Amino acid sequence: MTSASIASNAPLSELIRKIETGSIADRDVSAYALAFVRDGVITGEGPTTAGRVHFSRALDADDAAWCVRILTAAANTNQPVSRAEAETLFEINKAATERSDDGRFDDLFAKAIVHHAAAASGLPVPPRSVALSPDTSIESWAPTTAVGVNTEVLEWIAKQMRGTRRNNRALMRLVATLIGAATLPLAHTLPNFLDLGM
């Protein structure tokens, strides 16, 4: 039985324990833990909403804190944000039509997606504790040109962002910069990207 299949059936408390106290990185466990946050945002119920009033399709400061806790847990701090984690963050972003977290999730979301994109392209990224910190500017470490950035990753991000009612301006700005500097074939595959609300 794989680590991912075990994680998919584990309660949130077990997943959190594993990523906060484990010595072996397992980003699949983090993705499954983020899925609990996503489900809580969608339904307003579940372990991440326990003990408080939580409306469906709403994201509050506690939800953002869960995401921070999961993404910056000790076991994965030196690992780049994975595709599975990034996908779940996109799902949370799409599900949360109401926000009351003072922008903390948007900041974390943009940084996590760019962390994934840069690392998946083979570019160096700082540890999560630095890159995802609210005290660290995304511009201080994110790539500013498309040189070395994998076009498949940019296409994936643009596809995830397409059709989203609420777009993250910091992420859109960085991706638009990278796409603008990227090769001409990429620009042809993403003709409507810059119409996402910039």
| Helix-residue proportion | 55-70%
Number of strands: 2
Strand content: under 5%
Note the quaternary state here: single chain
Through-space gap between termini? 45 Å
Q: Note the main sheet.
A: 2 strands, parallel
Query: Which regions have little confidence, pLDDT < 50, spanning 5+ residues?
Result: 180-198
Strand arrangement, major sheet: 1-2
Q: How does the helix and strand content classify structurally?
A: mainly alpha
Specify Rg, calculated over alpha carbons: 17 Å
Give the overall shape, derived from the CA principal axes.
globular
Q: Give the overall pLDDT as a whole number.
A: 83
- Number of helix segments? 10
What string gives the helices and strands in order? HHHEHHEHHHHH
Structure report:
The structure is a single chain. With 198 residues, this protein is mainly α. Helix content is 55%, strand content 3%. It contains ten helices and two strands, in the order H-H-H-E-H-H-E-H-H-H-H-H. Strands 1-2 form a two-stranded parallel ribbon. Helix 3 (27-43) packs parallel to helix 5 and helix 8 (151-161) runs antiparallel to helix 9. The radius of gyration is 17 Å and the shape is globular. The N and C termini lie far apart (45 Å). 40% of the residues are buried. The model is unreliable at 180-198 (pLDDT under 50).
In short:
This protein is mainly α and 198 residues long.
What is the topology?
Layout: H1 3-9, H2 12-21, H3 27-43, E1 58-60, H4 61-71, H5 83-95, E2 98-100, H6 104-120, H7 128-131, H8 151-161, H9 169-181, H10 184-189
Parallel strand pairs: 1-2
Helix pairs in contact: 1-3, 2-3, 3-4, 3-5, 4-6, 5-6, 6-9, 8-9
